Amino acid sequence: MEFSRRETLALGLGAAALTMLPMRVMAAADDAIAAFTGGADMSDAGVTLDAPEIAENGNTVPVSVSAPGAVSILVLAAGNPTPGVAQFNFGEASGEQSASTRIRLAGTQDVIAIAKMADGSFAKASSTVKVTIGGCGG
Amino acid sequence: MADNVKPRVKAPKKAAAGEIIVLKTLISHAMESGQRKDSDGNKIPRSIINRFTCDINGKNAVDVTLEAAISTNPYFEFSAKIEEASELKFTWYDDDGSVYEDSKSVAIG
Amino acid sequence: MKIKALTAIAAIMFAGSVYADENAELVVNGDLEIVTKTAAPAHLSDVMDEVMSGWRFRSEGTQAMQMDDFDNPGMIFVDQAMDAWNTAEGSEGKSCASCHGDAEDSMAGVRAVYPKWNEAAGEVRTLAMQVNDCRENKMGAEKYGYTSDQMAAMEAMLSVQSRGLPVNVAIDGPAAATWEQGKELYYTRTGQLDLSCASCHEDNYGNMIRADHLSQGQINGFPAYRLKNAKLNTVHARFKGCVRDTRAETFKPGGAEFVALELYVASRGNGLSVEGPSVRN
Predict the structure, then answer these.
(1) In chain A, what's the furthest Cα-to-Cα distance?
(2) Where residue B51 sits, what CATH number does that domain have?
(3) What are φ and ψ of residue C143, in 5° steps?
(4) A90, A71 in Cβ contact below 8 A?
(5) Would B82 be classed as within a structural domain?
(6) What is the ipTM score, two decimals?
(7) Do A92 and B74 touch (CB under 8 A)?
């Protein structure tokens, strides 16, 4: 497959538009994170996020979060029209501080989990989920 | 109240004292996101379940805030620690003010 | 330009596709073994050796949702239909249970043999037609819409009573003419894209159509809970979607053409287990 100069340029512009567009929505996710953490630093360890590398359909994507000792876990989808997904608050009768659910993703994007620990510290994990576009609308 | 809302809960009937049990819940609900438009181009208003809680003998195990990105027919899997014979209470709160409830008993043994 | 770019993008996307182990086996709730791959029925011996359920073409995550009845969202609607089964409706004050008793007993094995010749009516009938015949003529109740949520739920509940049993629709005797008509439709190209059912589901199963992994188009798993629209989908609604995707005017759900096509497509899965409600993308 060979591309002419013009085609390559067009593809490049398309790719640039694709990478730039999410910047605006990322800002909404950043705001949501700041509201949850109050701007505190986040550790890379302490919370795990399980999400598929590729989702067969963005309408129902299984995700799991786990953060032993957390009081709450915030889940965000940075590329959705609004980034909020869910916030799990764990009470005194909770077992392991983990939960699974099924979420909507508007397209390929990062899913983010932020845990608030009992000592007031925060931990963050994120995972890119590719959302495929089905061949058949059927 | 939204039509045909029906909760399902899966919990063990028995647990050892101090055991951590796995709970699963599923409820039928459209979870209308507020992002869709009808055939005339008008925005369909948001109508979702916005909160789900599970209490064990009155003590909270999990309290979830749901946003519009939770899929239709919301599903949750989580765990709870059982110290004694327990009444498990599950509650879903709808945007329209409806409250859906289910309960289970777990015996010690 | 457009096509080249699309192809380039498609190539990138396919490179990352993860599909489940082709040898995975479906066991529901840890004890109900489902046949998702078996020798093709005799009438297909010229075109394929093995028939496979759509379950085998899905990703691991989607497959897993069908391995436990609690994780399968289609089961909520089975519960709803069980309530409907026991609820009296219509002018006769009867429920399904008034005549048929416990669905677990009376409906075991029924889904597996439908569509089926009905001697009194002198036609091949789908399960949905039979449900509506009962509603209209025995209960004096309103018919369900052919592809309505209520019908899909009732079909799912009836499927559960046959889950694990082999699909075994009769294609000979009085059903033969309808079966031939269905076969004819299966191989007839339609629409601006000029595709027949066979173009995708016989000649190209296992290949990708853009980002979608083409299955054999078996219907042993219907009604199917699709992640795409988060509800139970009936066979005729799926047929309609497929025909529409060839950019053709579709036949009417519940109409003679789709009834014949359902019989034929069901017969291509003779030997696979009844699976409904399945989970698909």
Answers:
(1) 64
(2) 2.60.40.10
(3) -65, 150
(4) yes
(5) yes
(6) 0.93
(7) no
B108 touches chain C (CB under 8 A): no
Q: Tell me, yes or no, whether B1 lies in a domain.
A: no
Phi, psi of A32 (to 5 degrees): -65, -40
Do A93 and B74 count as a contact with CB atoms less than 8 A apart?
no
What residues of C act catalytically?
Answer: 242
In the three-class reduction of DSSP (H, G, I as helix; E, B as strand; rest coil), residue C44 is classed as helix
- Are B108 and B17 in contact by the 8 Å Cβ rule? The answer is yes
**Domain coverage including residue B35:** 6-108
**Among A36, A82, A102, A109, the residue to mutate for chain B (most B Cβ within 10 A):** A102
Q: For chain B, how many structural domains are there in total?
A: 1
Q: Is the dihedral of CA C94, C95, C101, C105 positive or negative?
A: positive
Question: Over the stretch C168-218, which tens digit does the pLDDT of each residue have?
Answer: 999 999 999 999 999 999 999 999 999 999 999 999 999 988 888 999 999
- Other chains touching B, judged by 3 or more CB pairs under 8 Å: A, C
CATH 2.60.40.2470 fits A5-131, yes or no: yes
In this complex, which of C73, C79, C231 lies closest to B75 when CB atoms are compared? Answer: C73
pTM metric for this prediction: 0.87
Task: Confirm if C86 and C100 have CB atoms less than 8 A apart.
Answer: no
Query: What pLDDT is attached to residue A136?
Result: 67
* Segments making up each domain of chain A, as ranges: 5-131
Q: Is residue B61 part of a domain?
A: yes
